[in-house]
Amino acid sequence: MAGRPKKCWPLIGFSLICLKMVASAKTAPEIPTIDQAYSKISNSITVEWATVPGATSYLLTAEDGDTVIETTVANSPGTVTGLKAATVYQITVRSISAAGRSQASPPKQAKTVLAAPILEVSSPSPDSILVQWEAVYMAIGFSVSIMRANGLGRIWRENTTNTSLTFSSLEAGTLYTIKAYAWNANGTPGDDSTCNQRTSPRAPANIQVSFDSGALKASVSWAPTEGAFNYTVMALSDSSERSCHTTLRTCTISSLRCGTEYLISVLASNDAGSSKSTSTEALKTVACAPGRVTIREDPPGHLSVAWSNVDLGDYYVAFVKSDDGLEVHCNTSFTQCNFLSECGFTYFISVFAYNKAGQSPLGDVFNYTTAPCCPTDINPVLVSSDRVEIVWSPVRGAELYETKAVAGFTVVECNDTVPACTLSALECDTKYNITVHSFSEVRGSNMSCTSQFITTAPCSPEIKNVSKEAFSTINVHWQSTNNDAIYTVTAQGEKGLFRCSSRGESCTMAGLPCGSVFSVTAVAETQAGRSLPSYSVPLETVPCCPAGLTVTQVTQSVINVSWTVATGARTYVTVLESHAGQSKCLTQQNQCLLGCVSCGTNYTVALKAISATGVTADCAYQSYSSSACCPLGVKLYRLGPNGIRIYWQASRGSVNYSTDLYGSKGIFTCTPSAGLSFCDVTEIPCGDVYTVMVSPVAETGLKLTFCPQKIYSVTCSGSTLGMVIYRGKRNAE
Q1: Has the keyword Signal been applied to this entry (predicted)?
Q2: Distance (Å, rounded) from C-alpha 131 to C-alpha 460?
Q3: For the whole model, what pTM was predicted?
Q4: How does pLDDT run across 36-53, given as a tens digit for each residue?
């Protein structure tokens, strides 16, 4: 490299510095020279060349006239990939540095090797492998080798110009490695292909079959086979096919058909395929359950069970189980069995077929219900005129009881689920033939049940008349149509119960109390029972008379009659009667005021007690004398300084009187001598006002108080003859 001249520049006031300038020129690297180019793989060519100083990398170029492929590598050797197999390429190399790239080297020709054959392998049998491939471009022959994948054993190698090859005498179920390549006319081998293939397994041996008759399944076992991944067990018959798959050495085939003969085979398989079946085992399943089962009861108490014949059935067993748990069976090679039966039971019937494989599956379970039993202890618990209640013990098999009562053309029925029945709307005093039939929905009525006779209670008598014979006696008449009945008449009230009886149509009842209300009924009685009571007839006895009567004079013309309360009486009529006339009072109380009474007159007092319905009792009592008349003309006269004379006009007849003076200073009384009409009162104070009353005295000594009263004023005038002044009347209190 040439240097540049040095140059110096002067500088005023400064130091002079000399700079040396060095000039250099950059050039491309040298052109490489290819030593050799060759192909070992069908899609690449490897190139070798001498190293170029200063080169940092190299550019390889491959051209086949149609395409150009370039590859940059760091050093020699380098490989161009992505090429076509069996194709001639022009190879060049360029060196590359920081200054650039060199020219292409002189070209060198190289050809890629043949492509590897694409293999298809299979194992048509347990001891062979078939290798197949497509034709390879420019190939005139092929080399194929095979060996165990684990490297043990020998290697088989075959050359051929065909596109398939079979290796035989191999071990079953063994994995092999297959390698193949093609060569061209120069004998140059191409790429090789490698793949693994396993031979198919051999068929399993020592097959064992165990049959489960209850579940209709078979358990199959075998000796394991080399190289088998899984196993398939096949069960074939004329009409069906069953299978199961497993990786173990046993498998169960389920859902087998009854009455069928199967051939059992086992196939082993792996990724190469399945073995061929070489042996089979025969399996006969259990027979199917017999069909068309028929059940008859003829005569009653005997069951006949029949069925159809079935394939593979050697003999039959029929089971009959009653609903109380008792079971019987029969074993036969025929198709019929006979059993004893009882009323009111439901029998469950099943038939099985048997062979060496075991019992057939359970078929339909049939049930047969015999006629229900008849009630035997029918007991009437109530017999009335129009109704009969009967009970009985429940019987086996009865769902309903039909009770029927027949009398001539009359039929009465009742149906119920309980062991009791009430027959109503019956005729009284009638004999009925009663039958209880048991019934079930399946078998209907048991018509063989016996009957019994029951007679209803007598008819109720009808009371036609109740007549009163005396104060406490009645006669009752009735009408009835019963045969040989005794009649009892009852009168019931608050005062007790009274009866009379007769076989005829009337009876007399005595001793009934007064003032009572009774309900009279009659009943009839026979050996069948008692009738219902007749309609009641009301009976009311006359009211009782009061136990005592009291007459009290209230005023001169009014008396008060009172009495004790009479049993049964609601209203009373009091009559006061004399020669002069009659006075009457009607009341609901126990007393009555009678007016217009004449004083000093003899009367007859009568009382009538009447019930609420108008029944009357006449009660008579002794006579009554009214009180004497009150005196008239009562006057007072002064008798000295302290004395008063009371004077009056006496009434007719001999009457005693009593005189009373009432003042603020005291009460003064005097009683005159018999026959006199005046009375003197001495020592009476003057200067006071006195009330004066003169009253007749009754024979009993009772002084009447209803006579008029007069008021007088007695003054003190200072003389011995005072004045008595009349001040007026005062009503009696």
Answers
A1: yes
A2: 121
A3: 0.47
A4: 999 999 999 999 999 999
